[in-house]
From TrEMBL:
One Pfam family recorded for the sequence: Aminotran_4
Organism encoding this protein: Cryobacterium fucosi
Alphabetized PANTHER family for the sequence: AMINO-ACID AMINOTRANSFERASE, AMINODEOXYCHORISMATE LYASE
UniProt KW Lyase keyword: yes
Family: Belongs to the class-IV pyridoxal-phosphate-dependent aminotransferase family.
Protein name listed in UniProt: Aminodeoxychorismate lyase
GO CC, alphabetical: cytosol
GO biological process, one term: carboxylic acid biosynthetic process
Gene3D superfamilies for the chain: 3.30.470.10, D-amino Acid Aminotransferase, subunit A, domain 2
UniProt keyword list: Lyase
GO molecular function: 4-amino-4-deoxychorismate lyase activity
EC number(s) from the headed UniProt entry: 4.1.3.38
Top-level taxon of origin: Bacteria
Length: 295
C-alpha cells in the first residue's frame, strides 16, 4: 500500500490464450536499478506509454487507454500488447496502492534492447500532483506552431503523429516556451492555422453552442478524457462534434478547455494574452463527473 509502486512486466504476445499473468509480473523497489543501459526507451525515446488516473481506488478509462496503447504499438511497429495482460497488470497494481486519493498510473512499452530478446514493459504508480487549484483557476495558454501542415499524418506516417510515444522532449519544450511567454500551457497549431492539441492534453471549445474538438484524424491523440467529457455533455443533452477548428475559431470561441487524464478539465483563461470567457460552473461539473467515474 505504498507509493511509488513499480511493476516490471514480461510482455506476452497479443494472441496468447494465457489467462494467469502472475508469473509475468515482478514487483520491485522504485529506487532500484531496473533498465539496461542499452534500453531503446531511454536511448532514443523508442517506446510508447499511457498515463491513467486512479481515483479512490478506481482506475479510470482502462479500456480506452489499453486500446490507445495498442494503436500506438501498431503505428510504431511494436509487438501489439496483450490487452488481458495489461488489464491484469493494472488490477494487480490497483490492489497494492492506496485506495484513497488521486494517483497517476503510467504504463510503458519499450522496444527493449537492440537485438534483445523482447520488448520491455513496466508500470509505475505515483501520487498525482495536487491539481485542485488549477482546476478552479484555469490556465493561460499560448498558441505554438507545431511546424507541420494539416494532413501531416497521411503525408508522413513515419512521424508517428498519432502515437503516444515516449519522445516528449518537444512537448516539454513547448510548456517551457509558454512559461517564458508568461503563460502556463500551450495549444499546438498546424503550420497552416488549425488547432491540434496541448502538449499533454486535448482541446475542447464551445462554439455556437456546440462542444467541438479537433478530429483525431491521425495527427493528434484521441484523448480518453475528451471522450468522457463528450459522454457527459451528450448525456446532458448538449451537442458535440469532431471537426477541424481554425486558430481564428479558437480565438473567438465561447469557452475553451484543456482536458487530460490526471489534471482533468481546466478552463483556458487567456490565449496569447487575450482574455477568454470561462464557465466556472460547467468546469466544476465536468471535474466532479470525471472524479466520480468508477471505471
Ligand atoms: N494529447 C497529448 C499529446 C497528450 O499527451 C495527452 C495526455 O497525456 C492528451 C492529448 C490527453 O489524453 P488523455 O485524456 O487520454 O490523458
Amino acid at each position: 500500500m505504498t507509493l511509488p509502486f513499480t511493476l516490471l512486466i514480461d510482455p506476452v504476445p497479443a494472441d496468447s490464450t494465457r489467462t494467469d499473468f502472475a508469473e509475468t509480473f515482478h514487483e520491485m523497489e522504485s529506487t532500484a536499478p531496473a533498465l539496461r543501459v542499452g534500453e531503446l526507451s531511454t536511448q532514443r525515446g523508442d517506446g510508447i506509454f499511457e498515463t491513467l488516473s486512479v481515483v479512490n481506488g478506481h482506475p479510470q478509462e482502462v479500456e480506452p487507454h489499453i486500446s490507445r496503447l495498442r494503436n500506438s504499438a501498431e503505428i510504431c511497429e511494436l509487438p501489439v500488447p496483450n490487452a488481458a495482460q495489461w488489464r491484469a497488470a493494472i488490477a494487480y497494481a490497483v490492489d497494492r496502492i492506496p485506495s484513497e486519493g488521486e494517483l497517476a498510473l503510467k504504463f510503458v512499452l519499450s522496444r527493449g534492447v537492440e537485438s534483445g530478446p523482447a520488448p520491455t514493459a513496466w508500470l509505475h504508480a505515483t501520487a498525482a500532483p495536487d491539481y485542485r487549484a488549477v482546476r478552479e483557476r484555469g490556465v493561460r495558454v499560448v498558441t505554438l506552431d507545431r511546424g507541420y501542415p494539416r494532413g501531416v499524418a497521411e503525408q508522413a506516417p513515419w512521424l508517428l503523429m498519432g502515437a503516444k510515444t515516449l519522445s516528449y522532449a518537444i512537448n516539454m519544450a513547448a510548456i517551457r516556451e509558454a512559461r517564458r511567454r508568461g503563460a502556463d500551457d500551450t495549444i499546438f497549431t498546424t503550420h497552416d492555422g488549425y488547432v491540434m492539441e496541448g502538449p499533454t492534453s486535448s482541446v475542447i471549445i464551445r462554439s455556437g453552442g456546440v462542444y467541438v474538438t479537433p478530429a483525431p484524424s491521425g495527427a493528434i491523440l484521441h484523448g480518453t478524457t475528451q471522450q468522457s467529457v463528450f459522454e457527459y455533455l451528450e448525456g446532458a443533452g448538449e451537442k458535440t462534434e469532431y471537426r477541424d477548428v481554425t486558430v481564428e475559431e479558437l480565438r473567438h470561441a465561447g469557452s475553451v478547455w484543456l482536458v487530460s487524464s490526471v489534471r482533468l478539465a481546466v478552463a483556458v483563461t487567456a490565449i496569447d494574452d487575450q482574455p477568454c470567457r470561462t464557465d466556472v460552473d460547467l468546469t466544476r461539473s465536468l471535474n466532479a463527473y470525471l472524479l466520480a467515474r468508477t471505471a
